[in-house]
Amino acid sequence: MFSTIPLPPLFSGLGGYDATALRSDVSAGLAIAAVGLPSAIAYPAIAGLPPETGIYASIAPLIAYALFGPSRKLIVGPDAATMTVLAAVLATILATPGVTADRVAVAALLALTVGALCLVARLVRLGVLATFLSRPILTGFFAGISLSILIGQIKRFTGVDIEAEGLVAPVLELAREAASIHWPSLLLAFGCFALLQVARVLDSPVPGPVIVVVLSVLLSFLFDFEGRGIAVVGNIPEGLPSMTLPQMGSMPLDTLLVGGAAIFLVSFGAGIITTRSFGALGGYQVDPNRELSGFGAANIAAGLFGTFPVTASDSRTAVNFAVGGRSQIAGLVAAAALMAVLMFLGGVLRILPIPALGAILAATALSLIDLGALKQIWRVSRMEFIFALIAMWGPIGLGVLNGVVIAIAATLVYILRKSMYPHDALLGRIPGRDGFYKLHREPQARPVPGFGACMIQGSLLFFNTDYVQARLLKIAEALPAGTRWLVIDASAIPQIDSTATAMLEELCEELKRRGIALGLAELHGDARAMLHRAGVIDRIGVHMVFTGMEDALDDFEQRSVNAA
Prior knowledge:
Blueprint: H1 9-12, H2 19-42, H3 51-56, H4 60-68, E1 76-77, H5 80-94, H6 103-123, H7 135-152, H8 154-158, H9 169-176, H10 183-201, H11 208-223, H12 253-282, H13 288-304, E2 311-312, H14 314-323, H15 329-344, H16 346-349, H17 354-368, H18 371-380, H19 382-398, H20 400-420, E3 423-428, E4 437-438, E5 451-457, H21 465-478, E6 485-489, H22 498-513, E7 517-521, H23 525-533, H24 536-540, E8 545-546, H25 549-563
InterPro entries: SLC26A/SulP_dom, SLC26A/SulP_fam, STAS_dom, STAS_dom_sf
Protein name: Sulfate transporter
Domain STAS: 441-556
């Protein structure tokens, strides 16, 4: 009886686990914790949350994903792009009249919302949403997000409060407030940023953020940075977080759901890109629907332990791969190590300089700008590059939350544009060979006298029927005199809607007036059923609907012989 109960992925993936694998997982877990700690402390600042929430977000969700996530290698945690969208959603919710909720509580509620959306999406198998935002649009969106993060570090670098928004206005405001710049903070920030770049270029065995955190804490202790006016992290609560259900209070449910949906779409899209990238590296398949279970559990755990939404972490997962983590045990070790940090090193982290965190965030933001991918998009498709620029402009010009809307809108426009103008081609025969060939592609192909043949490549739906009808009429006008049939190869038409059925009926009547019979070949089952219900097949004539183009030509030739 009990053997039929499925084990959680953590336990089902431990077959053949031995001491060697344990040593690898312990090493990987400690490395993950070391790399994750700087970003765990830095990322909450993007959304105006206290640093300890970042450590909480690197513990409870990691344990939940280790238990319920399908990947043995993936590590979840705070993500810069997700934090930027979270910051915009928090600003919108907290600006709503009558809302008095605590910022941390709202972030926790949003994490629960994202987790619930993941599980609902898993239930209805909406893992396809992972590909809703195309790679060009995500590349542009993340570039826009990164520029927003960079601008957000002005205060941490200079100590100057900047109220302007956008890309240029904050820089101009900083220029006007140049006299207020705290130069020691600025020098420290630039020094830490330079150190991060040197560590990256030299491929340092110790990650740059770890070097910056350790060195800046040491310098802060030796030279009393706080006493010299350099801002520090401040007190971090010691001990482990307790599990509580955040209270909604006067929270507007619709705003919470819309904000949660925006975070879900961006975090899941970005998370699946990370998951698939490392899946390809590790030689295993990624199932987006199963990943929804792991992401859902991680975000629900985040909400219950008072932190914010999380997703797959590329830097931590990369460390897990590099060090040789073998299973989800590595994630559990990392969580345990961060628990120890909370319990015993809170006093040390208290003097961590804020400019150092700003440098880590600035370096992270730059890593989100994938110039190589943008160049590749430019080479492959100018139109997709334009959509990438639109997605990049959204977060910069209209704010991050509106930028999500712009990215979604750009995706919809991109999809519509691809579908509005389906390709068509005239077909003909090559002497001595079977089958039909596109006339524009095969120089040897010739049209069959009296028998017009063409192919439509794409679904026939309400938004493209006028275009397709115009193209088919233009094709009919160009047919040689004496052409009696025009047969459409429908093998590349997966869907037909009611508007398209009406268009085909009109086309049939118009061609009849011109003395041309309309035929259809290789109809898909669903399309054939739709045309049958609409009465179009009866109007065309059952005898003009063929299994394949060869059958259509055989029938045409037989009728021509009989007519002669």
